[in-house]
Design brief:
Layout lengths: L1 E10 L2 E11 L4 E5 L6 H9 L5 E9 L2 E2 L5 H6 L2 E4 L11 H6 L12 H7 L1 H5 L10 H13 L5 E5 L7 H16 L3 E5 L3 H7 L2 E6 L2 E7 H5 L2 H8 L3
Parallel strand pairs: 3-8, 3-9, 6-7, 7-8
Antiparallel strand pairs: 1-2, 1-4, 4-5, 9-10
Helix pairs in contact: 7-8
Bound molecules: adenosine-5'-diphosphate (ADP) and magnesium ion.
The site of magnesium ion has 4 residues, from α1.
Length: about 230
Amino acid sequence: MLEVADIHSFYGEAHVLQGASLTVGKSEVVALLGRNGMGKTTLIRSVMGVSPPNVRSGQVTFKGEAILGLAPHLIAKRGVGYVPQGRRLFPSLTVTEHLTVLKPAAATHGWTVAKAFEFFPRLGERRYHRGNQLSGGERQMLAVARALMIDPELILMDEPSEGLAPVMVQHLEGIIAELKAAGLSILLVEQNLYSALAVADRVYILETGRVVHEASAAAIGADPETLTQFLGVH
Ligand SMILES: Nc1ncnc2c1ncn2[C@@H]1O[C@H](COP(=O)(O)OP(=O)(O)O)[C@@H](O)[C@H]1O
Ligand SMILES: [Mg+2]
């Protein structure tokens, strides 16, 4: 589904991604782990075509086609949804307005506003609330729902559990599992190791812009040395 091969990304002259590679298969949940500042967001932005950073070399392939160098809206159109770190909602737009920015309210195929409200009942209850009137958990649900409105086959989620209460983190894990069951592929950046291991099939660890470890979620959960070495988990 997604192949990232040997990408090198820069902020100005700062060489942040130094040959990172990974793959995400159909209906697979892949977690991208690593300490703060290791390049996780940079990798997600590089895949999505969001600048900065500048990707100077490497390949990004989605469903067998090269997408590196395409504008983000064209990458979205091909079926890649994006939940940016920090959610990036519009404070003055309502829940419904957020969901209809990318798709007409009258659309009847794929993800519709009605289907989004079935999937996220809380958003339905708050449909007239504005971005700045929502709780952290509601904002995260809205960021995920918005990404779904383009009918993605792959979703890139950058720290969706950041700042959420444990009960909301669990709710989010359930949503990720449901999306996977519906056939979506997910590349998930997570600081919360245990949440990542609860939902992921495979895991990559990024360290100063390179993938230094790849394993199944089950294997890494049983590998305290690797967790300590790269993630500082004791
Ligand atoms: N807009 C930017 N301009 C310059 N440097 C940046 C920018 N964004 C991130 N960086 C640097 O790139 C490195 C990787 O950052 P990032 O991808 O955000 O890491 P992570 O998401 O793993 O915490 C860090 O050293 C960070 O300081
Ligand atoms: Mg980040």
